[in-house]
């Protein structure tokens, strides 16, 4: 089992400061870093204000993301033993470019390189003219081309796919180590492509599978599908993101449950399929049929929608959509997913956005502590509290 921490490559922050965070991960025993390929965040401008998010006093907007591959190379120069996972999508970058980028990163790190590939989000695609509707067909082509190029020994390949057509295509035979590619999501078509061609599945819990038992059942079914397709289920891996609120104590956490930004984010991705709120007796904060990946355009979000969501979202949405607790409590919860078969875990703490700057620095240290405790609890009998502050159900 491996751990990772997500690094926010905001361009308002000097890259050297992010490199210091990468060094802290390396020295703190975290296995790797996750860098997201994003054009923009999940946050409407109406909610990015210092009185809601103290980070807004220093960061003029939450959308100034760095190019993930450029940033990853810079960070690996500072922390060359870290694994690196880049989360991207199948829509905005071509297969040849992604193969080349992944191989370049494998030449920069002593660790593993993994691409986690989703089908595209409206906020990344629509404003820039990309067709999100092509996400699944492009994903299938990408997975097939990725494997074909890595298996070719540098010899040219021909490929006729649904979206991509290659004739005599090669990026050369320099493969320092083989990078991995995973599907990122939980939908049926994505899982079909992933089980057919990819090295594993990356997903998020509790937003997709709300507890370790639900995750274990889904994992078992997916591995059965892998085997039925003639592939080795022992080689198929599961990576899990955990949206978290990691606090120093109960008081610090509970006072943030009503923060408008925390409530908004809990509503947006606390359940990827909003109808899943019904399973735990909660009303979806969004209108029927609304899904963040197909409908969220933060800069075009009307005040009326924000007001309606914040009026519906409750503490229960927050504590069910996030893993909440101290480092020990959050680690104990995540360790249960490890016991259920997760191979790679990434606690993603959103609390720093609503903390003052001094507290935000301490929060990063808590993430590193959490990763260490996950390893400790996963390697022997669980000695920490088995329940988080307010358990995800």
Automatic annotation (TrEMBL):
The keyword Oxidoreductase applies. Signal peptide: none annotated. Keywords: Oxidoreductase. GO terms for molecular function: oxidoreductase activity, acting on paired donors, with incorporation or reduction of molecular oxygen. This is Luciferase-like domain-containing protein. InterPro entries: F420-G6PD/mer, Luciferase-like_dom, Luciferase-like_sf. The keyword Oxidoreductase applies. Transmembrane segments: none annotated. It comes from Mycobacterium florentinum. Residues 14-343 form the Luciferase-like domain.
């Amino acid at each position: 089992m491996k751990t990772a921490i997500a690094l926010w490559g905001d361009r308002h922050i000097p890259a050297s400061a992010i490199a210091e965070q990468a060094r802290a991960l390396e020295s703190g025993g975290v296995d790797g870093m996750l860098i997201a390929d994003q054009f923009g965040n999940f946050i409407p401008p109406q909610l990015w204000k210092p009185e809601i998010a103290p980070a807004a006093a220093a960061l003029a907007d939450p959308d100034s993301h760095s190019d993930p591959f450029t940033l990853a190379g810079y960070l690996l120069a500072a922390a060359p033993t870290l694994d690196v996972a880049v989360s991207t999508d199948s829509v905005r970058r071509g297969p040849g470019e992604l193969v080349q980028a992944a191989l370049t990163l494998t030449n920069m790190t002593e660790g593993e390189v993994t691409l986690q590939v989703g089908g595209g989000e409206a906020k990344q695609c629509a404003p820039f003219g990309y067709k999100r509707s092509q996400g699944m067909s492009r994903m299938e082509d990408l997975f097939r081309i990725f494997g074909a190029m890595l298996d070719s020994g540098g010899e040219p390949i021909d490929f006729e796919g649904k979206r991509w057509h290659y004739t005599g295509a090669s990026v050369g035979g320099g493969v320092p180590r083989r990078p991995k590619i995973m599907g990122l999501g939980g939908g049926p078509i994505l899982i079909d492509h992933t089980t057919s061609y990819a090295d594993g599945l990356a997903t998020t819990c509790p937003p997709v599978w709300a507890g370790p038992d639900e995750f274990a059942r889904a994992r078992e079914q997916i591995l059965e599908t892998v085997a039925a397709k003639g592939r080795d289920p022992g080689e198929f891996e599961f990576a899990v993101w955990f949206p978290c609120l990691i606090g120093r104590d109960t008081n610090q956490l509970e006072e943030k449950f009503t923060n408008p930004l925390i409530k908004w984010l809990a509503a947006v991705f606390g359940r990827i399929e909003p109808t899943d709120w019904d399973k735990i007796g909660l009303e979806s904060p969004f209108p029927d049929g609304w899904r963040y990946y197909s409908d969220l355009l933060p800069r075009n979000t009307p005040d009326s929608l924000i007001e309606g969501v914040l009026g519906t979202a409750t503490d229960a949405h927050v504590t069910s959509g996030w893993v909440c607790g101290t480092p020990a409590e959050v680690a104990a919860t995540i360790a249960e997913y490890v016991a259920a078969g997760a191979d790679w875990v990434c606690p993603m703490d959103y609390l720093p956005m609503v903390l003052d700057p001094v507290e935000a620095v301490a929060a990063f240290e808590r993430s590193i502590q959490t990763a260490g405790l996950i390893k400790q609890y996963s390697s022997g009998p669980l000695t920490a509290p088995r329940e988080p502050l307010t358990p995800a159900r």
